[in-house]
Amino acid sequence: MQSPSHPCLSCGACCAHFRVALHWSETDAFDAKGTPAELTETLDAHRVAMRGTYGGRSLRCIALQGDIGVSAHCGVYAQRPSPCRELQAAWEYGEPSPQCDQARIAYGLAPLEPETWVRADGG
Fold it and tell me: Hey, which end of the chain has fewer CB within 10 Å, N or C?
């Protein structure tokens, strides 16, 4: 899990902005360590999506707990699917993240800056 000062723990915007589609083999129906299949819905013969992230006007992943922009975390963090593991917070590893910026802006949050990580690390 991320450290308590990790900016994602007060955000959650990406979990309520993007569809999270994954191959069904990433679920626990295939691998006991996979994403809980009951938290997904079928997209097609090969893909599922996290419930709450597919269709409709208001997206919010079923696994997202807490309030966006205040205190948020993934309820299945250790079992989160690859799209979630691959979406990096902006500047966490010295690189921009247009997806992170887009989600934060959609929820009225300022994009993260390189300095965010100096503060988050206590440096």
Answer: C
| Three-class SS state of 79 | helix
Tell which residue, 73, 118, 67, has the closest CA to residue 91: 118
pTM: 0.86
Q: Decide if 25 is inside a domain.
A: yes
Q: Tell me if 1 is assigned to some domain.
A: no
State the total domains in the chain: 1
| Nearest-angstrom CA–CA distance, 100 and 74 | 16
With b for 16 or more beta-carbon neighbours within 10 A and e for fewer, the 27-65 pattern comes to bbeeeeebbeeebbeeeeeeebbbebbbeeeebbbbbbe
Q: Which run of H or E residues covers position 115?
A: helix 114-120
For residue 80, being part of any structural domain is answered with: yes
Domain that holds residue 78: 9-120
Q: Are 16 and 102 in contact (CB under 8 A)?
A: no
